[in-house]
């Protein structure tokens, strides 16, 4: 199975969250690229974030974000 563009877009949203500060969320504005808006909406529908336009990570979203950050770190270190 390969990562499709939708998954890549969702991972890009997840790695924007500051995992050291649970009280800091993100806000995706209505004039953002449609791929970003759609990715954020999908993450909300999957229960990983608490608002359709960003907001805060849910418990499951935090786990996903931690994994995304870890994978990103490994890939960047290997390059």
Per-chain topology:
Layout: H1 5-14, E1 26-27, H2 34-45, E2 49-51, E3 54-57, H3 59-78
Antiparallel strand pairs: 1-3, 2-3
Describe this structure in words.
The chain has 79 residues and is mainly alpha-helical. It has one domain. It has three helices and three strands, in the order H-E-H-E-E-H. The protein has helices spanning 5-14, 34-45, 59-78; strands at 26-27, 49-51, 54-57. Strands 1-3-2 form a three-stranded antiparallel beta sheet. A hairpin with a 2-residue loop joins strand 2 and strand 3. The longest helix has 20 residues, at 59-78. It is globular and about 35 Å long.
In summary, what is this structure?
This protein is mainly α. It has helices at about 5-15, 35-45, 60-79; strands at about 25, 50, 55. The chain is globular and about 35 Å long.
Comma- or semicolon-separated keywords:
79 residues, mainly alpha, 3-stranded antiparallel sheet
How many discrete domains? 1
Low-confidence stretches: none
The ordered H/E elements are: HEHEEH
* Largest β-sheet summary: 3 strands, antiparallel
Terminal CA distance reads: 22 Å
Determine the structural class based on helices, strands and strand pairing.
mainly alpha
């Amino acid at each position: 199975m390969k990562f499709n563009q939708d998954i890549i877009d969702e991972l890009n949203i997840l790695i924007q969250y500051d995992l050291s500060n649970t009280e800091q969320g993100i806000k995706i504005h209505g004039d953002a690229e449609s791929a970003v808006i759609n990715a954020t909406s999908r993450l909300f529908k999957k229960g990983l974030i608490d608002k359709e336009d960003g907001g805060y990570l849910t418990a499951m979203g935090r786990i996903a974000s931690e994994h995304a950050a870890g994978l990103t770190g490994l890939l960047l270190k290997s390059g």
